[in-house]
Each structure stands twice: as structure tokens, then as C-alpha cells.
Automatic annotation (TrEMBL):
Keyword field: Oxidoreductase, Signal
Protein's recorded name: Glyoxylate reductase/hydroxypyruvate reductase
GO molecular function list: glyoxylate reductase (NADPH) activity; hydroxypyruvate reductase [NAD(P)H] activity; NAD binding
Family: Belongs to the D-isomer specific 2-hydroxyacid dehydrogenase family.
Organism: Periconia digitata
Shown segment, full-protein numbering: 113 to 449 of 449
GO cellular-component term (any): cytosol
Domain D-isomer specific 2-hydroxyacid dehydrogenase catalytic: start-end pairs: 5-335
UniProt entry tagged with the keyword Signal: yes
Superkingdom to which the source organism belongs: Eukaryota
Length: 337
């Protein structure tokens, strides 16, 4: 019988066409614009050789057990893998594909946008215009002023591809210095993704600890993976160490930042502002959530990779990873478990 693959949503363009062309596979695909329900996935995973999942699909012992022992491959339509129990995959010798390279540029673009929006009070300013308050805002030399990107020290929590692609974009703005913290504090980044670290035009230095990074930075960019050691690393203590004119940007995962501490830091003007693409408990952010009452916080609904070109490429690579996993061939990008 044909190998079974399960795909938890309809894909787009080339990726869907590639999948549709595979008559040698038994393809079970969720057929609605809403996310596939957990029960549907658990039911249909039975006897699957490969599963293509979205960020919203948990890949855990329960799913692996429901699938059974012929499961060889998981392909995730994402760069993050915190929705996947990687230890469980490793134990069962199941390979994991993901799409880290496809979305680097799109997320780095958005990161720069959030930095500028936070520093230049874009959300706050537009909010006033939308509320018809512009007539009550007579011009003043300091009207809606904020810190300037040129001359800023930028601190990266996590210094992988997306962070380094952000750095590349920030250099022409005239930033002054970069500090970064990885899982090996004080040590040089292990990968120089864009050849920026060898002979940098400005100091680019590993921080000894988060305290140093928080204290030195005018801009803090959260770009690390969510793990037990990064959860709430941006805490009340972190905000206390930050400069009053500094901004925080999170394009990684919500739980890296303690939301209550962020609300308090904004309330008490401990920091200048924030730009978030992610937040704890997303997407369940009701209209009365305290973060939405903060004029100095821009919150976007996790759209970092949302350009048409990037989503097309992520879809294609996810299918290619799935097919390569079934055949035991090299994936476009595979997580080393
Ligand atoms: C987005 O957050 C992703 O992990 O792809
Ligand atoms: C990510 O860049 C890390 O090493 O923490």
C-alpha cells in the first residue's frame, strides 16, 4: 500500500501542486481554512509515514503514539520548533524538517520596522490621528519625539540568522554598537551567517550575561528560541536594568518576555516603548488586555514571516522536507535532534 502522509492544512501554489502530483502517496489533508482540530489530527495520524504540521499543531508523545511505529518524518511549516517534543522524536528516530532560511529576510525586515515604530512612536501617533486628535496637537519642537536609531547600541537576545540579518539591515542606519547573548554567554557567536562578524565596522561583542545586555542597550531585540532557560528571561529584573529611553522588540516567542512585567515597565516609564510580533497566550488577547492599553506598545498578530514570497517558499520547503524524509534523502533544512 502507498505510504500515508497527513497535512494539516491546504497549502498554496507550487507547494500544493507538488503534493497533488504525488500519486504514489496516500495524502490525507485537512480541507478548511480553519486550523485542523486536534481530534482530526490524532484520528488521521494513524499509520502515517509523514506529517506536515503548522505552528499551531502540537507534536508530542500523544500524536506520535497515535501515528504508530512507521512514522519517519515530521515537516514543520515554521522556523520555531517549540511546538515539537524533539526528545520524543529523537527517541523514536523520527526526522524533523523546518524552514529556518526561507523566512529570515521577512522577519528581519519586520524587526527593523518594529524597532523604528517603537522608537518613533508610530503606533501611538497613528492612534491619535485615527481618534481625530490631530487638531488638538499643536506643533511643538518635542511633539511625539523619541530616540533615534543612529547612535543606538543594539542588544540581541539570541544571535542566530534572524538577529544577524537584522544587524545587517541596521548597520546603514548608523548604529553604534552591538552586544549579544547566546546560550554560551561571553563566547563569540558560533555562526557568522552573513560574513558580518569577522571584521565588523562597529563593535559587535558577546555579553557576559543578560544584566550587561539590558544595561547597555538602547534597543533590545528578542530573537532567541523559546526553551526552559529563555522563558521569562525578560523579567521585572531585566526591565529594571534597562535604560529609560530603551525599547524592547520581541519577534521570537511570547513567553520569552514576562507580559505582566512589560506592562508594569511601560506603566511606570521604566522603558520607552515596545514592539511585539508575539505575546504570551496568543492569539487569545481580548480587547481589554492590559497590554492594549499601553500607547507605547505596538502589538502585531505574529506576522513576521507574512510576505507572499516567504510563505510560498516556506510551503514549498515544507513539502520538500516531507518528501525527502519519506525517501531518506537530505532535507532542505533539518533539525539536528
Ligand atoms: C514563526 O514564528 C515560525 O516559527 O515560523
Ligand atoms: C541562539 O542564538 C542561541 O544560541 O541562544
Amino acid at each position: 500500500s502507498k505510504p500515508k502522509v497527513v497535512v494539516t492544512r491546504q497549502l498554496i501554489d507550487q507547494a500544493q501542486a507538488l503534493l497533488d502530483s504525488r500519486n504514489d502517496l496516500d495524502i490525507v489533508q485537512w480541507n478548511s481554512e480553519k486550523p485542523a482540530p486536534r481530534e482530526w489530527l490524532l484520528e488521521n495520524a494513524k499509520d502515517a509515514s509523514g506529517i506536515l504540521v503548522m505552528l499551531s499543531d502540537k507534536v508530542d508523545e500523544e500524536l506520535l503514539a497515535a501515528a504508530g511505529s512507521q512514522l519517519r518524518t515530521i515537516a514543520s511549516f515554521s522556523v520555531g520548533t517549540d511546538h515539537v517534543d524533539t526528545a520524543a522524536l529523537k527517541k523514536r528516530d523520527i526526522r524533523l524538517g523546518y524552514t529556518p532560511t526561507a523566512l529570515t529576510d521577512a522577519v528581519a525586515d519586520l524587526t527593523v520596522m518594529l524597532i523604528l515604530m517603537a522608537q518613533r512612536r508610530a503606533g501611538e501617533s497613528m492612534g491619535k490621528v485615527l481618534k481625530g486628535e490631530w487638531p488638538q496637537m499643536p506643533w511643538h519642537p518635542l511633539l511625539m519625539t523619541g530616540p533615534q536609531i543612529g547612535g543606538s547600541t543594539v542588544g540581541f537576545l539570541g544571535f542566530g540568522r534572524i538577529a544577524q540579518a537584522t544587524l545587517k539591515r541596521l548597520l546603514p542606519f548608523g548604529i553604534k554598537k552591538v552586544v549579544y547573548l547566546t546560550s554560551k554567554p561571553g563566547q563569540p557567536a558560533k555562526e557568522d551567517h552573513f560574513g558580518l562578524l569577522e571584521n565588523p565596522s562597529i563593535p559587535v561583542e558577546p555579553a557576559e550575561n543578560w544584566e550587561q545586555l539590558a544595561g547597555e542597550s538602547d534597543v533590545v531585540v528578542v530573537g532567541c528560541a523559546l526553551t526552559p532557560s529563555t522563558k521569562h528571561i525578560v523579567s521585572k529584573d531585566f526591565f529594571m536594568k534597562m535604560k529609560k529611553m530603551a525599547v524592547l522588540v520581541n519577534i521570537a516567542r511570547g513567553p520569552v518576555v514576562d507580559t505582566n512585567a512589560l506592562v508594569e515597565a511601560l506603566d511606570t516609564e521604566q522603558i520607552f516603548g515596545a514592539g511585539l510580533d508575539v505575546i504570551e497566550n496568543e492569539p487569545n488577547i481580548p480587547a481589554d488586555h492590559p497590554i492594549l492599553k499601553q500607547p507605547r506598545c505596538v502589538l502585531l498578530p505574529h506576522i513576521g514571516s507574512a510576505t507572499i514570497a516567504t510563505r510560498e517558499q516556506m510551503a514549498e520547503e515544507s513539502v520538500e522536507n516531507l518528501l525527502a524524509g519519506l525517501k531518506g534523502e537530505a532535507m532542505v533544512n533539518e533539525v539536528q535532534l
